[in-house]
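Subject — a protein and its fold

Tokens — whole-number codes for backbone shape
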Amino acid sequence: MPAAPSRRSRSIRGWAELAAGLALVALLAEWVQWAFSAPSGLRFTAGGVYVAIATAVLWAWPASRQGLGWANRITLLRATLIAIVAGVAVYPDFIQRHAEGIAALSLLALSLDGIDGWVARRTGSASAFGARFDMELDAFFIVVLCTALIALDKVGAWILALGLVRYAFVIAGMYSPWLNRTLPESYFRKTVCVWQVATLMVCLLPFVSSAWATGFALLAAALLLLSFGRDIVWLWRRRPVDDTGF
């Protein structure tokens, strides 16, 4: 029987996969700069975002995991695209000139969101790590798109609430452990998440006015609050009887 890989070999493999993602971000940033005359600082903003994502992945990396696996590699590929979108979000003039391209890149990232789950199920490689990676990346993607809309002056800063609700939920769980219970699979929850991203992408397009963007965003916010409200009620009903925290 072959010996199990050492923790060091697992670590090296994980570092190599994350480094490959950084190399892809660098190539994409260079291509965007060459093809669309993007600001020279894009390589630093996009690279910095990706490094932050990779650091979070390493922090959550299970000791028993040998490598990312194909499903998580697709999620990582999505992270590279999101890093590029986040990198250009700090350049409003560039976004205004290339809003369609940014929306298209966001659509590609959204499409990959469905593929990684399918691959995980097909290969029997679904894991808590992969689910958390996917979920946290979704939340960050929403924050990035909200930031882009604020930079375009289409919607007020209140739209950041769409992305920050997830983090508020995590913080609340630190004080009320019953909120940390594992939630069951929910088609409604997944649909609302996709709706958030799709709505924000549409709002980026030049022909969508500020008034329409605000209306779409308010509808997305209402659906998001409904989704979180449903989950909180489910968790509250199943909290331990001796848990008095909220």
Remarks:
- The first helix runs from residue 7 to 36.
- Residues 19 and 54 are 9 Å apart (CA to CA).
- Residues 1-9 have pLDDT under 50 and may be disordered.
